[in-house]
Amino acid sequence: MKQWSLARKFYRSHALVLLAGVLIISLVSGIIFSRYVSSKTIDSREALINSLELKIESIFTYMDEFSGLLGESNEVKKLVINDIPEAYRSGTGISSFMLELYRYANRMFTYNLNISFRTKDGVYIWMGSNFLVKEINEDFGSPRYGMYEFSFQQNNPNLVGNIACETDNRPSVVLSRALSRNFSVYNPRVIMNVHLPSEVLSSWLDEYQQTGVLNFSILNRRGDLLYGEPVQELNWTGNYARIKGVEYHRIKLLGGNIQFIVNYSYISVSAFLLICILFTIVMFLVIGAPLLIISYFQARSVTKPVTDICHDLGLLELGGSIVSFQEHKTDVVELNQLCDSIDQMQQNLHDALDEIVNLESFEIHSRLLALQAQIQPHFIYNCLMTISSLSEENEPEKVSLMCNNLTSMLRYVSESAPEGTVLVSEINYLNSYASIMSNRFPGLVIEDRLPVEMLDITVPKLIIQPLVENSIKYCGRSNPHIIIDGTKDDRFWSITISNDGNQFNPEMLVEIEKKCMALRKNPRDLSFSINSMGLVNIYSRLLLRYGKNALFRIKTENGFNHVTIGFEDK
Is residue 428 located within the same domain as residue 559? Predict the structure, then answer.
């Protein structure tokens, strides 16, 4: 019996079938492919338009909702209508008021927004990377309360010449909204402007312009350009218009306050379809001979994967580094099954080693979550006793405030935040705690000196309040004075909690230092209970999160006890 090589036999048995298949497929694909591409082009364009519409709507809806929330806040209106202008004109400090205003408007940082307020009596307030308060002489006009409109601002004349706010003076899309303290419809007291820098808007929308498929522009209700190229005068039929082979599609958003106009060329689509058809014809002419040659060499190399598999198996080692097994996909089912089995074996080895390596970090992470979830039962007990006392004293407003604060604290504690939380959330949680403690310590004073630029940093959850609680506990008198200060740069941040109570006990400091040193040498010594050592608990959480970059200092200076925590890139 004549014997054939596997490669030659494979080639002969499939050569004729391959030629016939290429001929038929090439002829049919030329017909089908042009229709398919045409349909897919239209579908892709519509999908791109829908995606772009959702993107634009989400951006301007966020501006609308954000400005609406600020406009409905009585605290914000009181600050911009009364507190800040009065403080500015009297020459007293406005920093505390501005800090409070930044806290109410902290969501502005989500979309890199800036905010300005122009009061009816001529005070201008700017909130950006820096803040500005100044007197202006501009016509306030007669805006209607609650009405709002979008416009484009090339530059802000009120920021010209101010070095601190110079970087904020850039082209922006502005949402203007009229506000009033007493909801007077025709007599608003202030105009609030939410500024979205054009360069920020471009960074979100340029990816759609760069596709080359669509050109689009964004206009306000009056047809004024907000983004993109100017739109020529068109004769609209409904929301569609066509001129010189270009079709325009108009989409109205936010009740018509935003008009999104997109245009695309029929000529470019037709040219693309013609190229696809020509490509199909060329493929039919040239694919036959190359496929025959490729098929021949593939048939001859059918035995090569067996040799390669044996070679790679010799390189695999259990223990030490694992050499990556190369896939050898062929048209032989048995070889493919063998390759898949070896590849699965190698993956199982990787998974087993990864599981062993990750066990230790998983255990430490679990302990961190348990530490974070702690809240002292005696604090709840004291709160309930205080609520009971206030109820007996017929103080319903204080009872309601305390219940709200306690609810906010419990909700915050129950929320999962394994990767930490922003500092402003920690400060809000601390404010709820301080409000509760003020019922027990009426003379309690907590000074918040944290700079505004620190409010968006990420810190371990429940890291500030335990230090303040510790300060209250060891102040040793009924009028505790606590100061919260902080600093930040590109590679460093720190927060210092100071109190004017009794100085730290030397024996206690020695014990704390011993426990901290033990944790530094072996973090596995960390336990869920640290013998009521609250400061060691704080240090352990910093150590688990930042490792050697954790910052933790305790000292007494100028009559104050200071505890400093933070992060420093060593």
Answer: yes
